[in-house]
Amino acid sequence: QVQLVESGGGLVQAGGSLRLSCAASGRTFSSYAMGWFRQAPGKEREFVAAINRSGGFTYYADSVKGRFTISRDNAKNTVYLRMNGLRPEDTASYYCAARIGPLYSDRYFHSPEYTDWGQGTQVTVSS
Q: For a designed S-S bond to 108, which of 50, 76, 90, 92 qualifies (C-beta 3.0 to 4.6 A apart)?
């Protein structure tokens, strides 16, 4: 099990940028694939991005591809989500999630694949 704490959310104007961080506890962070999900009020939680254990493979939702970048620093037990070109429709609570082991190309976007979740950080984009 790993504990996850997100930070970096806030209020930003459309077109602006934010970088979210997710700090993980424990000494086995490099054993976990990581993902970012988001949930807007009245909507279901949706996949945003995922990264494998080494950081060599990344996956993105079509809605954020080219604007968001997921990365990780295993020495710092941290995963990041750099968000550029933010839009009002990106407004949501953003959650990081972890699953031990590899990412599977047919399931990385499926939230039940992840066993550990952070508490979320709010991102609000004004128009």
A: 50
Q: How far is CA 21 from the centre of its chain?
A: 8
Tokens matching residue 91 = 């407004």
CA distances from 87 to 43, 90, 99, 111, 115 (A): 17, 5, 29, 23, 29
Q: Give one DSSP letter per residue of 4-57, joined into a string.
A: EEEE--EEEETT--EEEEEEE-SS-GGGEEEEEEEE-TTS--EEEEEE-SSS--
Question: Could you report the per-residue pLDDT of 47-56, keeping only the tens digit for each?
Answer: 999 999 999 9
Q: How many CA within 13 A on the CB side of residue 97? A: 23
Coil, strand or helix: which one is 82? strand
41 burial via Cβ count (<10 Å: 0-12, 13-18, 19+)? exposed
Handedness of CA 103, 107, 110, 114 (dihedral sign): negative
- Say how far residue 25 (Cα) sits from the centre of its chain: 16
Name every residue whose Cβ is closer than 8 Å to that of residue 44 and which is 6 or more positions away in sequence.
none
Which residues are 124's β-sheet partners?
A: 11
Nearest to residue 48, comparing CAs of 34, 29, 27?
34
